[in-house]
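Q: Could you write out the predicted structure for this multi-component system? I'm mainly interested in how the pieces pack against one another.
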Amino acid sequence: GESVGLHLPTLSVQEGDNSIINCAYSNSASDYFIWYKQESGKGPQFIIDIRSNMDKRQGQRVTVLLNKTVKHLSLQIAATQPGDSAVYFCAENNQGGKLIFGQGTELSVKP
Amino acid sequence: ETGVTQTPRHLVMGMTNKKSLKCEQHLGHNAMYWYKQSAKKPLELMFVYNFKEQTENNSVPSRFSPECPNSSHLFLHLHTLQPEDSALYLCASSQEQGQRGYTFGSGTRLTVV
């Protein structure tokens, strides 16, 4: 069936380093992808999105890369800060109006 | 605050109890969603309402009963739950079903004892 999965359940980085969180998706018909950040005790918050007609999109300190050939999505966080510690989810919109979420990667930033 | 408010934040209930979760949004959105978030699992879509009409029931057991009286409010009525129903229940909204981004509430942490 359709699934979105993350390669690593946890990621630990040093403050100031760059972080890369990966995601694989299985539905080649998905045309829209979103990264969410979920801090402890809160619901998922939108970080950045990308449409399937793009390969890269940049935000403030974050970049999303989409490789449709291998159905891979990644989130890059520049100069990672303690406040970036959270669980990060990718989600795909499969044109049916439903978001399908991956398992999540827990990012831990060491001071 | 995201604009989507969920109450209560925490709920402990026995298996024979009846309780309700409430979600409220004043973003002018017309689609609302219930998701279940269990540990180590992806978010699971439970129900979708679009313009107050239920458009999706993702094979959810009947002990969960949603209600959407208007586009701003969404309820999840709970009765005779099981311990495995313990989870974080998240409400989300979007402009319409099929719209790209969802706005999530902070969730209700439910514990069934």
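A: Regarding packing and overall arrangement: The interface with chain A takes residues 2, 4, 6, 31, 40-43, 45, 48, 56, 90, 92, 97-107 of chain B (CB under 8 Å).
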